[in-house]
Design brief:
379 residues; alpha+beta; five-stranded antiparallel β-sheet; two-stranded antiparallel sheet; 9 strands; extended
Length: 379
């Protein structure tokens, strides 16, 4: 009766149901089989799966949807590190370093010896904590994680993950970061690739006098970027990265139409930024320049062979040297380290390259490799 009622309720006739469908209904089939065995008077101790029904528990478990943990990555990393610190070390593990435990936890001087696996786990946990917006305000996340390790090692019965989150975590805030844009003027509000560009007279913009936040020419508009976090300096960095990306795309898109010249596409972000009238800051330019005062004795400078290069080359060697000098100058003037490295290699190619060998000749590549290795070893 139980089996018949269940079959009627679910409108399932197992004898005519496709086995592939039954494979997805294993828990229900178990109930059905048990019910039929009860009808037939079989006891639980004599229960055996009905041979007419193919049991594929492994296949059924493999088809279960995986449920990802809702616990943040930083907390999972802290929990894994806590378990690693408290485990019994194996005989094959070798000490990789020592660290002095905080005196407030031990009551005296005591060293903690840790293996290589824990060092890597601490580094991974520090990276996870640094990437979590709740902890980005920490000045030194590594110190906080190492203190967490010391707590877990000295007291092995307490779960210190909630304490870490409670003492160091902050609720992220949403804010608009306003960054002036130089040499780009707009007359009305525009939204480009998710970034709002406002005229300098827009009422949402914090109005001067605000430290480091200047709206005078050459500033022609202000980029407004929504950011989230707990450290306004890092929030401003993310806002600048978003605004710079939008301006990069804008330069390429505008240049596709006739009219603007390359000199009109050199607009960029100013150094200052503001979240409101009281929360402001500034970022140093990559290509910033500082004053240099030459000393009275320039003997070593004048003895450098490069000082003897003429403005007009007389030989092929001088011509290569002047081309290399121009590339080296560009490497000094740019603020981008990757671009500077490319300029240095261009200078090296100008000195060592031969037209007969081609641009990617094996000889040039070998000489470049040797010079790079020798310079890295000497430094």
């Amino acid at each position: 009766m139980i089996l018949a009622a269940a079959q009627r309720a679910l409108q399932i006739e197992f004898r005519y149901t496709c086995p592939r469908v039954l494979d997805h209904c294993l828990p229900l089939r178990a109930v059905m089989v048990c019910a039929r065995h009860q009808e037939e008077g079989r006891s639980e101790s004599r229960f055996r799966p009905d041979p007419k029904f193919r049991w594929h528990s492994a296949r059924w478990r493999a088809r279960l949807p995986t449920v990802s943990s809702s616990r943040p990555i930083a907390e999972r990393a802290l929990a894994d590190l806590q378990r690693l610190v408290r485990r019994q070390p194996t005989s094959t593990e070798k000490p990789a370093g020592t660290r002095l435990l905080p005196t407030e936890l031990t009551g005296g001087e005591k060293k903690y010896i840790y293996p290589l696996a824990e060092i890597k786990a601490v580094e991974a946990t520090t990276a996870a904590v640094s990437a979590d917006l709740r902890f980005e305000h920490l000045r030194d996340p590594a110190d906080a994680v190492w203190y967490f390790v010391a707590e877990c090692w000295t007291d092995r019965s307490t779960d210190y993950v909630p304490a870490f989150v409670g003492s160091h975590g902050r609720e992220p805030t949403d804010a608009a970061c306003y960054i002036p844009v130089e040499f780009l003027t707009i007359r009305e509000e525009r939204e480009l690739s998710g970034t709002r560009f406002l005229p300098v007279t827009h009422p949402d913009i914090p109005q001067p006098p605000v430290p480091w936040f200047v709206l005078e020419p050459p500033v022609g508009c202000v980029a407004a970027v929504r950011v989230r976090g707990t450290n306004y300096g890092r929030m401003a960095e993310r806002a600048r990265a978003t605004a710079s990306h939008t301006l990069r795309l804008l330069r390429i898109a505008v240049r596709g139409y006739p009219g603007p010249s390359n000199t009109q596409l050199r607009f960029g972000l100013a150094t200052g930024y503001a979240f409101d009238a009281k929360l402001t800051g500034w970022n140093q330019r990559d290509a910033i320049a500082y004053d240099l005062t030459l000393g009275a004795d320039l003997t070593q400078v004048l003895e450098n062979p490069v000082m003897a290069l003429p403005a007009e080359p007389r030989t092929d060697i001088e011509r290569k040297a002047l081309v290399a000098a121009r590339w080296m100058e560009q490497a000094f003037l740019t603020g981008d380290e990757l671009v500077a490295l490319l300029y240095w290699f261009f200078a090296l190619e100008a000195l060592l390259g031969r037209k007969s060998e081609g641009l990617k000749a094996h000889g040039l590549a070998f000489r470049q490799m040797v010079l790079v290795l020798s310079s890295s070893l000497s430094s």
